[in-house]
Amino acid sequence: MDKDKDDDKKGGCRKRDPKEAPMLRSAVHYTVYKLSEDFMQRSSMTLPKETVLAVADHIFLNMEQIGRDLEFFSKHARRMKVTPDDVKLLFRNAPDVGTHLDAVLRQREKEKRQARPLPAPKAKKQIGSRKVANTSRDAETNSRPASPGPRKEQENDAMDDDDF
């Protein structure tokens, strides 16, 4: 059996596709380069390309480590997905990040609640001159067939008439 598949079954970390690493690294380098260009335009400073490259490499390696840590936290909790609690644990020594994460999560929950349609009101039945909400108990009583008790008595009476 393949070693990567064995690691996945034992709860180990998923191995990254070796083809993805250069593409991810170049995407990080490009983003850092664009940010550094923007910084140099706003300030009258110039940054050597070696410095920008070193910063980009550091960011890439740091993000790899963060990803591994988050994966280990979720595996330790016997979960397959990383949760916001894992991110809070990762940044436990940076309280500003935890506060910002809480604010973002509260905002997302608020948006979800606003986007969710309101539940339809329960059907009401009219009793006398007032309307009453149809409860599940009322629905059960209305859906039951009529009791067979009085009907049997009528059949017995009819049989008595036929006997004479």
From TrEMBL:
A Pfam family hit: CENP-S
GO molecular function: chromatin binding; DNA binding; protein heterodimerization activity
GO cellular component: FANCM-MHF complex
Keyword DNA repair applies: yes
Family: Belongs to the TAF9 family. CENP-S/MHF1 subfamily.
Keywords of the record: DNA damage, DNA repair, DNA-binding
Alphabetical GO biological process terms: DNA repair; replication fork processing; resolution of meiotic recombination intermediates
Alphabetical list of Gene3D superfamilies matching this protein: Histone, subunit A
Positions of the UniProt region annotated as Disordered: 1-21, 109-164
Identification of the protein by name: Centromere protein S
Keyword Transmembrane helix belongs to the record: no
